Amino acid sequence: MSDTERLAIEGGDPVRADYLVFGRPVIGEEEIDEVVATLRSGWIGTGPRVAAFKAGLEDYVGAPNALPVNSCTAGLHLALVAAGIGPGDEVLTTPMTFAASANVVVHCGATPRFVDCDPVTMNIDPDAVAAGITPATKALIPVDMTGRPCDYDALLPLAEEHGLVVVEDAAHALGASYHGRRIGSLADFTAFSFYVTKNLVTGEGGAVFAKRPEDLERMSMYSLHGMSHDAWMRYSDEGFKHYAVAVRRRRSA
Question: What pLDDT digit, counting tens, does each position of 127-145 carry?
Answer without folding.
Answer: 999 999 999 999 999 999 9
